[in-house]
Amino acid sequence: WNVDNATENGPSSLQVLLMWLLTPGNYERLHSKQRNKAISSILSALKKNGIHHRSESSIRSKVSVIENQYLAAKRWLDDRAMRGDNIVNGSADADSEAQVLALCPHFIELFPELRHSLVVRDPNVQLIHSDLQRQVAEIKLEHVKKESKAVLENDDKMRAAMLECDIEVKRERGQVQLLLEKVLARQTMKKEGVPNEEIDSILPL
Question: What PANTHER family does the entry give (predicted)?
Answer without folding.
Answer: EXPRESSED PROTEIN, MYB_SANT-LIKE DNA-BINDING DOMAIN-CONTAINING PROTEIN
